[in-house]
Automatic annotation (TrEMBL):
It is found in: Membrane. Keywords: Glycoprotein, Glycosyltransferase, Membrane, Transferase, Transmembrane, Transmembrane helix. GO terms for cellular component: membrane. It is a single-pass type II membrane protein. The keyword Protein biosynthesis does not apply. GO terms for molecular function: glycosyltransferase activity. InterPro entries: BC10-like (IPR044174), Glyco_trans_14 (IPR003406). This is Uncharacterized protein. The chain crosses the membrane at residues 29-49.
């Protein structure tokens, strides 16, 4: 104290004592400051780059291929023409029909295309005739595709080497004689239309069998100028007698047609069926049992819209001679060489405006018990 007083008397300010621990800036605050600074620099740099450069089409070269960045949208030509890898999807019926209605208007395809036949099986569950069909399809893998509409509760069990493996489409319950049956057929057509290579579409049941070899079927269908759907005017109670006058004026009695459910049509008619919103509401509302809409809807609608494209006959043999609401079911005792020769002799039709005896290529209904006999004699009976 005395020293301080002496210093003040001499006009000098005494120096304060110096601490041994300097007041350093806290280490955690310094670290946060560095991170914050880097963040600001990175943000400014990102904004600058996004304004002056586009990364939408950036690709990273690899040794064997080009690897697209995960945010790049595939817009190459192959993505438009490549068929779906899996027939299973999550689309609703409305979304599926809308998507399938897209069809090229230029029919000269700018890529190599092998036109295929879409074989569409409408079934409740398994296909008991699958081994026979597998023999029929063998060796022609690039010329066909398969679609199966079964009950939603059925899970297919075909082995990976089978052409039926994973070919079951998303399905809904169908009722005999109801519009749900036509909905299932439209669903099959729509799924098949997603593959741009499918040019012809054949509707079959689990009880159908092929009467001729695949090359014979393909040649006949691909060279035909017309599609094959049975259509005729039945003036009786099971024809015009099912007509409902509430369908006027969209469908008049003079337009009313009947025919077999089982058909073969080309791509144009397939698109016409799945995009129809003119005749569908009338048939859904006014063609109910005992109208049996699957015998009238497509037949009437197509005969109004495109009669010049139809042969007015089916390619599938069915025996209605016993009467009743269902055709004859053939058993093991029926499937003899004489039986199929008899079917062949009954054939007479017109093909490309010329008389022909080659008219039928499929037949139904065959019970599962006939499979072994059919497999044993398929080469002798059918040529495959």
């Amino acid at each position: 104290m005395q020293a301080r007083l002496v210093a003040m008397e001499e006009g000098k300010e005494p120096s304060l004592p110096i601490s041994n621990q300097p007041r350093a800036f806290p280490r955690s605050l310094r670290f946060c400051s560095v991170i914050l600074g880097l963040g600001i620099v990175f943000t400014v740099f990102s904004i600058f780059m996004s304004r002056h450069f586009s990364f939408e089409n950036v690709v990273i070269p690899a040794t064997s291929s080009k690897i697209h960045l995960c945010f790049q949208q595939s817009n190459d030509f192959q993505s438009w023409i490549r068929p779906p890898l899996n027939v299973w999807h999550r689309m609703s019926d409305a979304q599926l029909l809308w998507r399938a209605s897209f069809d090229p208007q230029i029919k000269s395809y700018p890529f190599e295309r092998v036109p295929k036949i879409a074989f569409m099986f409408l079934t409740r569950g398994p296909l008991p005739m699958a081994p026979l069909w597998e023999r029929f399809f063998k060796g022609h893998e690039q010329m066909y595709s398969i679609y199966i509409h079964a009950l939603p509760t059925y899970n297919e069990t075909y082995p990976p080497f089978s052409p039926f493996y994973q070919r079951q489409i998303p399905s809904k319950v169908t009722e005999w004689g109801m519009m749900s049956m036509c909905n299932a057929e439209r669903r099959l057509l729509a799924n098949a239309l997603l593959d741009m290579s499918n040019e012809w579409f054949i509707l079959l049941s689990e009880a159908c069998i092929p009467l001729q070899s695949f090359p014979a079927v393909y040649l006949y269908i691909s060279n035909s100028r017309l599609s094959f759907m049975e259509i005729y005017d039945d003036p009786g109670p099971c024809g015009r007698g099912r007509y409902n006058h509430n369908m006027e004026p969209v469908v008049n009695l003079t337009n009313w047609r009947k025919g077999s459910q089982w058909f073969e049509i080309d791509r144009k008619l397939a698109v016409d069926i799945i995009k129809d919103d003119t005749y569908y509401p009338k048939f859904e509302q006014f063609c109910r049992p005992a109208c049996y809409v699957d015998e009238h809807y497509f037949q009437t609608m197509l005969s109004i819209r495109s009669p010049q494209l139809l042969a007015n006959r089916t390619l599938t043999w069915v025996d209605w001679s016993q009467g009743g609401p269902h055709p004859t079911t053939y058993t093991k005792a029926d499937v003899t060489k004489e039986f199929f020769t008899k079917i062949a002799k009954k054939q007479t039709c017109t093909y490309n405006n010329q008389p022909s005896k080659a008219c039928l290529f499929f037949a139904r209904k065959f019970a599962p018990e006939t499979l072994d006999t059919l497999l044993e004699h398929s080469l002798e009976y059918f040529g495959y």
